[in-house]
Amino acid sequence: MRTYDGSAGDVDYGTISPLYASYRRPDERIAHVIAEALGGARTVLNVGAGTGSYESAAHTITAVEPSLAMRAQRPAELATAIDAVAEGLPFAEGQFDAAMTLFSVHQWSDVEAGLREMRRVTRGPVAILTCDPARVRDFWLYEYAPDVLDTEARRYPPLDQLTAALGGSTTIQSVPIPLDCTDGFNEAYYGRPEMLLDPAARQACSAWSFVDDRARQDFDTSLRRALGSGAWDEAFGHLRGRPSYNGSLVLLRANP
Ligand SMILES: C[S@@+](CC[C@H](N)C(=O)[O-])C[C@H]1O[C@@H](n2cnc3c(N)ncnc32)[C@H](O)[C@@H]1O
């Protein structure tokens, strides 16, 4: 199923993407972790490439992105993205040195088929940046927006499903999230709760599009109240000064 915009996953980026690139700017420290996983690759496939976050000039990138709205927001200096989906990649066997898919697998209609395709077209490592569904609810946001994180826990594929689909040998590492992380996914605001009161910041995280206006309003009211009364700071204020946070964000690196 593709939407009018071409979106192929469980989210219509034609609706939610207008501010994506301003709130989801690649973070250089996370970029470093991804670059290490890609090793010395020259040609790199980026699946679910979106607006081009984490595509490095050090690689020759081929980007695949089904959403027209996302493709249209890619900076001019990046490769034009190909309109295709993970589940059917239009490339030859072993065409790329390495491949990556970042913040994307939880949206695919058939994650196993998509990863088999990535493995098929890649000679070397396949890197997946995703969240561990077993850890999603550990974040303080669960106290204020349980529906949002329940949705996330349901959407993210279990890590053993990802490793089984890729075959070969896989390493999994927890990715530290810096306090001033520029890529605005929910946990990026672990020490800056006020940021999540900005509706546009929330819109840049697709999970919020799965709950209705009423749930968003309830969240806004309860977090504002907790910040105003000091209850949030009493429980979680230590996070305001913590330089990095290990939450549910993980990087998988699968070798054939
Ligand atoms: C949260 S965005 C991440 C974009 C980019 N990788 C980043 O890190 O900013 C998820 C992307 O996955 C894409 N996507 C969803 N389903 C897909 C599929 N079946 N095949 C390829 N890409 C897909 C969406 O269109 C969207 O651009």
Automatic annotation (TrEMBL):
What is its EC class? transferase
Q: What is its EC number?
A: 2.1.1.-
Q: Keywords on this record? A: Methyltransferase, Transferase
Q: Which Pfam families match?
A: Methyltransf_11
Instruction: Specify whether Transferase is a keyword of the entry.
Output: yes
Provide a GO biological process annotation: methylation
GO terms for MF: methyltransferase activity
Query: Where does the Methyltransferase type domain lie?
Result: 45-123
Q: Which Gene3D superfamilies match?
A: Vaccinia Virus protein VP39
Q: What is this protein called?
A: Class I SAM-dependent methyltransferase
**From which organism does this entry originate?**
Streptomyces aureus
